[in-house]
Amino acid sequence: MNELNLPIYDPARTTIKNMRNKGFEWEVIIDRYEILKELVLDDKIDNEIWGKLVKEQKEVYENQQFIKRGETDAALVSNNEDNGCYVPLDSQSSWQLYRKKLKEKGLRKESIDQLEENTLKLLRKLSRNTMDTGPIKGLVIGKVQSGKTASMAGLMAMAADWGWNTFIILSGMIENLREQTQERLISDLDDGNNYWHSLHKLSKRTDLGQRTQNLNFNERAPHRYLNVCLKNKTRLENLLGWFKEDPNKLKQMRILVIDDEADQGSINTNKLDEAERTRINKLIIELVNINANGVKPKAQNYISYTATPYSNFLNESADDSLYPKDFIGVLPTAEEYFGSKQIFGEEGADDEHRLDVVRLISEEDKERIKDLHTKPNNRMPRSLVQSICWFLNASSIMRLYNYKKPVSMLVHTSQIQLHHINLANVITDWIKDTESNVILQLCEELYKKEKGRFSVKEFREGFPEYPTPNEELNNYPEFSDMKQHILELIKSISHIMMDEEGELNYHKGIHLCVDNSSNTGVNDENMHVRLAYPSSSKLKELGTAPAFIIIGGSTLSRGLTIEGLVSTYFLRATTAGDSLMQMGRWFGFRKGYELYPRIWMTDNTFDQFQFLTSLEEELREELKEYELGNKNPSEYGPRVKNSPKVSFLRVTAKNKMQNAIQIDMDFSGASIQTIHFENNPKELRDNIEVTEDFLNNKCGKPIKSKISNSLVFKDIDFETIKEQFLLKIHFNERSRVFNDIKTFCDWFEQVKDKEIFKNWNVIVSSAGQIRDEGRITSEKEWKVGSYTLGMVNRSAKASSKKYGKDMINIGVLRGPRDLYADIDKTNAGNEFSNAKQSEVTRIRKEYGVEDVPQLIIYRIYRKSEARNKSKEVDAPNKRIDLDFSNDMIGYAKALTVKIDKVDTEDIEE
């Protein structure tokens, strides 16, 4: 280890940085050594060490000039001063060795640089001495399978270079996932200046050589200790005993506790008015506040990582809890990541795109699956047959392209273990009993359909920012070239074979794995039943991509990485959104097989995922606003969209949201809009009459916007808007927020009394230029006062067909520039085309209208035509024409959050 990195030199570094900040040149700082020695420098620092420290700080300063803040979705809300850490530059530092490993794994330099920047931000929020201040507690939010483990490993590597010596990872509640995490982390962290030691199942009775008395936590020692511990009562109690065994060792430790999947197991689910906490929650709190007979560690830092943070925000926030009082960080998302936004789209987003990879399971097929769970037979539902055939197609393509890693299919239809066995038997029997030529025919028919439906062109439309050029994507081969690989796959289907020495052997057929907590892993026939991917040496020996069909429940819901996932059959019911999002094993990176993943699920489940996608994106946007507002996380936790009227999906389980304030995030900070419409002649006519009366008789005289083609009525009081418009308009039954419009009105009445918001501006959007006067010359025009406006064109999403002939979803109503229409500025530039909430907040604040709510009204032409048409019901980016009996009135509400004024504690339910 480079001795200059030791904390004993920190005061000297601070002196150098202070002098540099005051404008001293580097040569002058070196020359001042003799004077400084008499005044402030430690006796251990001689002239040579001083010179090295100045040179080191100069390199750091110059290196940091190249670290720019990119246009990412990262954010960091904090109440802490930065600790002054910087990126280690030594080639043998743990961080630089980790960078090298990431590069060897094929990560792009841009992604590694982004990880480095974010890791440094997190490290700077930690403390190397908490003996007087108490432990640091923070939260890091990632996305499901987006690289949280890479961030954890990076943070440990960089922290190790800065003197942290003890790393505890709390890893879920399932043992095989714990093992997977420990193996991955220790393989990612290479020895160099620091020596990494993997510790297992720690307790007072742990093996000699792993007890604290046998380990070296000395300040100058290069040893770094890593333990991955289950969130299990016995394991946690044993870990506490290990820490407390030797107080002299404990006080030498600089500890970093990383709570992986922190919304699982760590949350206190007992009622807050009960003295007894959930046992695991109590043990983790004891770990975070560890002491042995009054002796504390040198430093104690606790960081929780999760992709679904709702329970962390909505649960208790007392000082003695695990609430992230010190900072909340959001991990940036790599450009290559296939996440919920790419797969399900964000309903109502102005840049709505999604990949056309979801196929719907009919209600009839859903009932058939339920029958197969309890009464196995050969009547496989069509959707399950298709998902298996697609797995065979995709696996054969990947073998054809010489892909050598595992390829997988996931079947997740129930959490009941007997159902897993029954469904596994049905799938096995179908593959074995169906003639090979029939399977080939089914595969070919499906292949032709999928190849035509989701090409490279459609991929690029759905994921335009994906960094790999089209010509480098592995395109669809000819089916004739795939046949031999399909026949090779269906020739054999079995569990993983185990030899007499317990070694797993793999074949070129299909490995069927039933992965649940009741399986010990090996059956009576000495076959390994649970999922176990081959080691790198076994993969090399096999010479081709091994194929796996994995059937399971809770063990597949979190943490476990399903490698090469190309086909998912998903049929699970849940009312908790965080559980549902964690089940999305299809999220992640798909380098080399971008075109091939497919997912089968019900229409209702798709809607739930799309709802959660909007929630996830809004949460990230709101955290950016907190970052800009310099709010302390312990003063102001993000409000989560959690209205009781959203009955089809709660964001988290009720016992994990005991500190929640019943407030809908849409009401204060997000822009909401009507996108569902029904062809009901009377309601459409009523809405037009209400709107025309409201605009012509209740709002005064409008002015023309300088930003967009629209009229602006300024300074309209909320009582007029509520009584003359909101409570008179008919809303579609699928518009969840608008159907609860009275709750919104009550909420606004409460917050407006606190002078958070001013009177409203009403904006009426026009297609094309607004004429000051004159007659209507087309059925696409309408009058507002003396002005003639063009009706807007909004076609319907092709997926609207699933609602029936009289119901549509237009996807997006609002035009981005309309959010700025009431700003008084001429010659507006491109900055007024960005509809991201954080940018809208920034720009409206810049022009002094951040506290002015907006009501934006659109009259949609009843015969609007689509530009990008499709006949497919579930095609994501395709549109269909409108054919309504009358024009539609759509509107959007936009309320910019004022972080410095909103106090949710005063808002009643």
From TrEMBL:
InterPro entries reported for this sequence: P-loop_NTPase, Put_endonuclease_Z1-dom
Domain Putative endonuclease Z1 per the UniProt entry, residue ranges: 383-645
Source species taxonomy: Bacteria, Bacillati, Bacillota, Bacilli, Bacillales
Source species of the chain: Gracilibacillus oryzae
UniProt GO MF annotations: endonuclease activity
Classification via Pfam families: Z1 (PF10593)
Listed name of the protein: Endonuclease
Keywords from the named record: Endonuclease, Hydrolase, Nuclease
